[in-house]
Amino acid sequence: MPDEEFDLPGCLARVRKSDQAACRDLVNHLYPLVIKIVRSHLPRRSAEEDLAQDIFIKMFSRMHQYQGTVPFPHWVSRIAVTTCIDQLRSQKRRPEYRMADFTEDEAQMLENVSHPGEDTDPVDALSARELVDKMLATLNPKDRTILTLLDLEKHSLAEIASMTGWSITMIKVRAFRARKKLQKSFQELEQKESHE
Fold first, then answer.
1. Distance from the Cα of residue 15 to its chain's centroid
2. Better pLDDT: 166 or 182
3. I need a labelling partner for 177 at 20 to 30 A (CA). Which of 2, 26, 107, 146 fits?
4. Was domain 1-93 assigned CATH 1.10.1740.10?
């Protein structure tokens, strides 16, 4: 059902009356938004459908909490981001990498990134993205979420505040600190490599 034709208020009213067809329509309408958030915040993509289902379950179980003060997709985005952060926390996974853990392409990309005057070949974009994902995985979930939304997905501070419920000041501070942590990680990797 195209977005222009989708009657969200009407669908929500039917969902509140336990209309199963309306529930399916709502999930189908919101699925692209939810899966995009899940894919950009989940370190391993193997459980993305399960996590998306969890988000929809939370959405339906909390439907009575939706007051209409923000657009419904923003409200669902907040649930999705929070669920992803909770999933990342539950994994308690903050790996530290050594240069030997990277592929040859990733190691070269790291070398290029850590020496700003050198040009990076555009063909290496996929390797760069994989390297960024690995380095972001070393951050705590909130820092990773902020950098992903701000730097990779290019959302504005206001959009991120709306999606997460965090203040703009907190987002700026956490983004600054997270970038410093990544910079320190790059430097530590470089130092380890030079000593090996």
1. 28
2. 166
3. 107
4. yes
